[in-house]
Amino acid sequence: MTAFRRLALPAGLIMWSMFAIPAPAQIAVSANDGKQLRPGEAPSTRVPDMIATIDMRRYPPKTLATIEVPASLVGPPTTVAVAHDGRLALVSAAQRLNAAGEIEPNGVLSVIDLRDPAAPRIVHTLETVPGPGGIAINRAGTLALVASPGDHSILVYAIAAGRLAPAGRLQLPDRTRPTDVTFAPDGRSALVTGQGSNRLIRLTVAGSALTVADARIMPGRQPWGVTFSRDGRYAYNSNLGGNLPAAGEPAPAPGTPRPGTVSATDLATGAVTSVEVGLTPEHVALSPDGRWLAVVVANGSALAETAPGYHPYGLLQVYRVDGVSLTRVAEAHSGGWCQGAVFSDDGRTLLLQCSLDKAIEVFRFDGKTLAQDMAATLRFPGRPGAMATASSR
């Protein structure tokens, strides 16, 4: 029998090891919007915005804590970013309630200390441009980028000691409408989705300075969210408006539902492959090992029941990823008006935000099938609208 020595550690070090390094990719942060109402809901049903920390280190996932933090359902599900060491998160809010109880544009960034995920706390807030979009943090945890669709720019913030400081701004051409931004794994480049220009824009990152390196890639209509492959060679993005029209193709009639697409781009060659996924692909999320891509499809579930394209359910799809090849391996029905999704570290559990039902649904994935665990559903008073883990992007 092998003998093991028990090491005596100071109490403070034990506590730090328990809370400061919490298997970072296994803590999900969900931003939940309490302002947004559906037809028939009374203003008195509104609740404060909040974030929830969710423990994915064991099954079933468990909500550890909730705290009030400004948040927004409006915008891509990437308005939350978690640092790669798991110690902090950034959350943006694009709207607020004014004194008259009306929703109006807003711009707030909050820094959340996650060292104890059971007791997260706001350590810094900063006003920013109205209507901020997707957020990204570099792997070093020193720099954050924020897409600003309203003024067609990318904002740069330095991160130090749990605080944000403005560090620059890149102005893009009018009508670009950048909705999302993400860093390459090496931190030396970044990608922006130009919803208004139908382009993926590659940036060079040098310190806090950004320059446009390539703006020629056109993956589809209205690109929305984007992520890099784990080696940084490929990009995967959703296109709300589907494929770009071929030469001579007539424009669709106004109001005609148009299937969205997901595109895979070889950034070395510019080659693009796209697959149709359904109406309104809200989010693309890569598994930590880079083998699987989850796609959240609203599928018309947020529309009025009489609207063209309405379905009473959304779709969660998983694709096998091999460079620019995307092969659908699983699909499951979900709740309505779903937003963000994240994988567990082992890729076998997915959390899916469904804002219509004010819930985060839990799915099990075995490489071939998706199975929803109804008993594991997490419920909240507000509408989940954005979510991330330390390995989301």
Which SSEs are present, and which pair or pack?
Blueprint: H1 11-19, E1 27-33, E2 50-55, E3 62-68, E4 80-82, E5 88-97, E6 103-113, E7 121-127, E8 135-137, E9 143-148, E10 153-160, E11 163-171, E12 178-183, E13 189-194, E14 199-206, E15 209-217, E16 223-228, E17 234-239, E18 260-266, E19 272-278, E20 281-286, E21 292-297, E22 314-322, E23 325-334, E24 338-343, E25 349-354, E26 359-365, E27 370-372, E28 378-379, E29 383-388
Antiparallel strand pairs: 1-2, 1-29, 2-3, 4-5, 5-6, 6-7, 8-9, 9-10, 10-11, 12-13, 13-14, 14-15, 16-17, 17-18, 18-19, 20-21, 21-22, 22-23, 24-25, 25-26, 26-27, 26-28
Signal peptide: 1-22
Keywords: Signal
InterPro entries: Host-pathogen_enzymatic-act
